[in-house]
Amino acid sequence: MAGFNEIDRVRTPKGQYVSASPLGGSGRPKRAIDAVPVPLVLVVVALLGYGLLVVWSAIQTNENYSFSRQLMGVAMGVVAMLIFYSFDYRRLANYTTLLLIVNVVLILSPHLPVIGVESKGAQSWVKIGIQLQPGEFAKITVILLDAAVMSKFGGRLDDPREFIKALAYIAIPFLCIMTQPDLGTGLVYLVIGAVTLIMGGARWKYLIVLLGVFVGLIVAVFAVDEVLKNATGEYVLLQQYQRNRLLVFLDPSADVTGTGFNLNQAMIAIGSGGLFGKGLLNGSQSSLGFVPESATDFIFCVLAEQFGFMGALVLLVLYLALILVSIRIARESSDLFGTLIVMGIVGMWLFQILENIGMDIGLMPITGIPLPFMSYGSSFMMVNFALLGLIGSVYAHKG
Q1: Tell me: the pLDDT tens digits for 108-143?
Q2: Are 99 and 145 in contact (CB under 8 A)?
Q3: Which residues of 208-220 are buried (b: 16+ CB within 10 A; e: fewer)?
Q4: Which of 360, 110, 105 is nearest to 252 (CA)?
Q5: d(Cα 235, Cα 6) in Å, to the nearest integer?
């Protein structure tokens, strides 16, 4: 893998890299501060503060949201982060079957009677005292599973049979999440899998064939759905709202009072912010309820309306710093498993950032994908902090 420093490291029979010295590459004990990725902590603190401010402003006129619940999500997330940080991630490298089982159980748990909760047409939640979204928490185990599978090949995957086997591990969580159905989260799982395949050394010809098959399946789904529509009178494979989102993406002005209303209101809010915005709590589109799901999927619209282009630029700079610092930690990892974990997290964050902001400005289809450290949601916040803990664990155990 590019970026690996082979000094003071040996390769195991399974192709993973470990430090040859328990004290690290220099042979000296690490200071406590050396085990903490300070730049990452500073970036996340800035992102979190910015996000809490924007969420607070977004929910002032919506009694369905609770700021104290968001703070509780942060508090529980910090606890999760510390737990993952203190755990040696390398212990999980060989537990692919266990990780797969945990994934399946987590993702299918909303289908269980009594605890399963349906919301907005999807069976994605469980209620066990508090309401949680297991599919969000499964992002952690999906990252660990995909990284564990690909790390076994030592950075080069040439055998087509092993490639197919790796694809099976990656595909199972996606198929499970589509039983809810939750296409947005499913796409996140696929992106994580794609990143780990690329970074794990899968041959490019396999990846190109896989991309072609994926595009072919998408075309087939639409074609078969049209046939089923003619036979049964309704779409079966894709729900009508999913088709509407794609149609609006292709032509935002097609139905501005109907299916295109959300996107057009979002773009109006962003455009009205101008260079410096209207000021905190002064966004007319968001405060008057024109922007849909303003605290979750369309939180970027609230930020852009109130703080303008400059406020949006600050957010993008913070995200860029988050991505670059994380990539540096991945490059300095003492083994391939750690590198793939961090790069899986980076891929997930980058996709969610591009998709969420892109859908708000009409460059991407609308999906229910939140913005990291910005969108409202305790489950989402806890997951992001837990992933920070994993990155911290990789950093703390580097050579």
Answers
A1: 999 998 888 887 677 888 988 778 889 999 999 999
A2: yes
A3: eebeeeeeeeeee
A4: 360
A5: 55
Give CA–CA dist 136/381, Å, rounded: 10
Task: Please identify which residue in the block is written with the tokens 């996709």.
Answer: 351
Instruction: For tokens 């209207």, name the residue.
Output: 278
pTM of this prediction?
A: 0.87
Q: Name the H helices within the chain.
A: 38-58, 67-86, 96-108, 134-151, 160-177, 183-199, 204-232, 240-250, 261-272, 284-287, 299-331, 336-360, 378-396
Tell me how far apart the alpha carbons of residues 224 and 227 are, in angstroms, rounded to a whole number.
Answer: 5
Chain centroid to CA 100: how far? 18
Q: Give residue 252's pLDDT band: very low, low, confident or very high (50, 70, 90).
A: low
Residue 385 vs residues 18, 85, 374: alpha-carbon distances, Å: 26, 10, 12
Place of tokens 């049209």: 226
The C-alpha atoms of residue 119 and residue 127 are separated, in whole angstroms, by 12
Report pLDDT digits (tens) over 323-367: 999 999 999 998 999 999 999 999 999 999 999 999 888 888 878
- Please confirm whether the linkage preceding 22 is cis (ω < 30° from 0): no
